Amino acid sequence: MKRIALIGMPNAGKSTLFNRMSGASAKVANWPGVTVDLLSAKLLIAGQMAEIVDLPGIYDLHGFSDDEQVVRHFLCNNAIDLVLIVANATQIDRQLTLALQLKSLGLPAVLLLNMADEAKQHGITIDTQHLGDELGYPTALFSAKYGQGYAGVYELIERELQSSQATPTLSLEHDFAVDQAVEDKLEQIIRNNVEVPVQAGNSTTEKIDKVMLHPWFGLPIFFTVMFLMFQAVYTIGAPLQDAMAWLLEGFRDIALAPVLSGLPPLLNSFLLEGVFDGVATVASFVPVIILFFLFMAIIEDSGYLSRAAFLMDALMTKMGLDGRSFVMLLMGFGCNVPAIMGTRTMRSRGLRLLTMMVIPFSLCSARLQVFVFMTTALFAPSQAPLVLFSLYLMTFAVVIITALLFKGQFNSQEPFALELPPYRFPTTKQMVLRGWHEIRHFLRRATKFITIGVVLVWILTHMPFGVEPASAASWSGWIGEFMSPVLSPAGINSELTVALIFGFVAKEIVIGALAVIYSLEGSSLMQGIAQQIDWVQAYSFMLFTLIYTPCLATVATLRAEAKSAWYTALAIVWPLTLAWTISTVFYQSARYLGF
Amino acid sequence: MTSLFRLSTLSPGQSATVQALHVDSGFQFRLNALGFRVGKSLELIRIGPFNGPLHIKLGNTEVMLRQQDAANIEVLM
Question: Quick one: closest CA in B to A92, which residue?
Fold first, then answer.
């Protein structure tokens, strides 16, 4: 099988091309460093199977950050038939360096100049034919996002792949002493083949930045944008969740319950009140999650994340973090796992460890489900979105506490320079792909963790045989009683305790578990919980859920990235301690004040 | 008349030419790749809130760079 590798600088559009070629849905965003690991897909090209590998972006072959090491390691250990060098055509004057470095290594490659649309807007003209001849690599201009010129690119890849010979693996010990020669050659090729108008630049981006990066209004605008986004997710999402829950309830009552009614009572209860109610309650939040990720896709693709890094860098520095840490926290609002992996672009280990320590406090989409559920159940519709927003603010409060406390342990003064890409907007297709990607992600988790989780909860609440479900005599009752000296000061009752224990595996299980524990579903579950606990307990429970040990997948990622058992233990114990302390302080003070 | 300055001393709106990079080799490669090469001209667009990073434009590339790192780049005005 032939092997094709995509190589290029960060944010050049490698993953967008990878998705277009393979039909995959690798995550793309307008941020340098989205892809930090290898992604591969197999496809039929020129009549034979080929493996196409999407590599993290690399600024040059000297690369020294962890994501760049991934590229070097790949190049040194794999024979490659064809390299697709992806470069941003509007920045060809500096991105061509990588092509020249690869050329000096003798790799078979084609140069694909991406973002033809933007180059045209900027009035940049490139003589691709002549440039390719001078460089020694066939060259084409195209747009991976909109598809113009893609047919030509595909033909070029087919043709080159047929004639190319796999190179033996490389040794990158090569010291690039020839760098000055590379630079001279670069200047010459650009001078001969590229025309850039004197007043080059993206005036739209400049105008938007004048407002968004305003020295006084920039930060208030940023927080307003975030607030409006969460407000919109809640306002549009809550009714959608309600409708979804109604549909699932209808399915249960009309179709499922009659079919299962012939079964023995215990089995019936297991399937209906255990598996179905648990999974369906979690599934009713899928519309909220899709909606949330559509908003995230717009923000990530817009290039605003880099601006957030710019605006927040000075404040984050005071906490021992930097602007990139802040962006990873924002990405963590989607899912903590890719955000933790995203820290690979940082070179300093101290900075990476401190950033990875705070990312799990990011209110991820799984926790969002729990909070949408709880706030809808216990707060008036006008208050609920504000309560939700207060939890997002709580994320930052906990991050600040943690970072200030640990910054002495994880010190760093890493110099860094970050690109601020022009503002862009995702295509409808990209947004649909993103939504679909999230549904698949949910289904994978649903079939694994969520189903197993709710089944276990059902067993705990219904065993030993014959007990009143979830009563003090059941196993879950025992656990609740056992934990009660610890958690009752925080106002967390035994039912909520069992849900929290399972939330350690994945936060989605929390609401699934509550459905099973209360043997209720949909709106009746919300009413049932509202009768059992008051808002102070609910808020304390939400604080605990937000702060305590992240899900199993996050812990596993932390361990894999940090490669330290000591660090992993700290990343489990510290959030638990903090969650208990904050919940208890909140609960006791609220009670003391008479709430 | 021209004279040497640290990049961090520019005011927003001023342009200059890169003269020397006094940074470790790892960071120098990164800066080179982003377009900071001797002889290249750049413009300081703005400075981030709370005396934050510099927003610099080099050709068609816009970059943020912290003040302490910009202090190690010499420019000619």
Answer: B60
Q: How far apart are CA A508 and CA A503, in angstroms?
A: 7
Spell out the domains of chain A, with CATH numbers in brackets: 2-195 (3.40.50.300), 220-414+427-592 (no CATH)
Residue B50 with chain A: CB contacts under 8 Å: 314-315
Residues of B in contact with A9 (CB under 8 A): 33
B44 forms beta bridges with B56
Q: How many whole angstroms separate alpha carbon A561 and alpha carbon A342? A: 10
For tokens 């099973």, name the residue: A516
What is the pLDDT, as a whole number, of residue B57?
A: 94
Determine whether the interchain pair B26/A64 forms a contact, defined as Cβ–Cβ distance below 8 Å. Answer: yes
> In whole angstroms, how far apart are CA A510 and each of A227, A254, A369?
25, 27, 9
Reply yes or no on whether the pLDDT at A185 is more than 90.
no
Which of A32-46, A171-185, A388-402, A524-538 shows the highest mean pLDDT?
A: A388-402
Tell me the pTM.
0.89
Residue A3, C-beta contacts closer than 8 angstroms, at least 6 positions apart: A50, A51, A53, A78, A79, A80, A81, A82, A166
Q: Are A134 and A193 in contact (CB under 8 A)?
A: yes
Which residues does residue A49 pair with via DSSP β-bridges, in sequence order?
A: A44
A127 touches chain B (CB under 8 A): no
- CB-based burial, A408-445: b 16+ in 10 Å, e otherwise: eebebebbbbbbbbbbeebeeebbebbbebbeeebeeb
Name which of A285, A46, A51 is nearest A162 in CA terms: A46
Q: Which of A98, A313, A419 sits opposite B61 (nearest CB)?
A: A419
Q: Report the alpha-carbon distance of residue A457 to residue A470 in Å, rounded.
A: 10
User: Tokens standing for A459?
Assistant: 């067993």
Q: Give dist(CA A145, CA A457) in Å, integer.
A: 46
CATH at residue B15: 2.30.30.90
**Chain B: residue whose CA lies nearest to A122:** B60
Backbone phi, psi, residue A362, to 5°:
-65, 130
CA distances from A590 to A377, A394, A534, A539, A584 (A): 20, 17, 12, 10, 10
Measured CA to CA in angstroms, residue A80 lies from A67, A112, A214, A360 at distances of 19, 17, 47, 38
What tens digit of pLDDT does each residue of A117-175 get?
A: 999 988 899 999 999 999 999 999 999 999 999 999 999 999 998 887 777 666 665 55
Q: Taking the C-alpha atoms of A10, A11, A15 and A18 in order, what is their torsion angle to the nearest 10 degrees? A: -90
Angle value at C-alpha A288, between A282 and A292, nearest 5 degrees: 130
Closest residue in A to B72 (Cα) is A415
Pairing assessment for the beta strands A139-141 and B41-47 based on DSSP bridges: unpaired
Domain boundaries, position B69 = 4-76
For tokens 């959608």, name the residue: A240
Give chain B's count of helices (H) and strands (E). Answer: 2, 6
In this complex, do B29 and A310 lie within 8 Å of one another by their Cβ atoms? no
**How many domains does chain B divide into?**
1
Token digits for A475? Answer: 């196993």
**A124: nearest CA partner in chain B:** B60
Alpha-carbon gap, residue A575 to A357, rounded angstroms: 9
Mutation to test the B interface, candidates A321, A327, A418, A423, most B Cβ within 10 Å: A418
What's CA A377's distance to the chain center, in Å? 28
A357 touches chain B (CB under 8 A): no
Handedness of CA A526, A530, A535, A538 (dihedral sign): negative
CA distance B27 to chain A (A): 7
Interface-testing mutation among B62, B63, B67, with chain A (most A C-beta atoms within 10 A) = B62
ipTM of the complex: 0.95
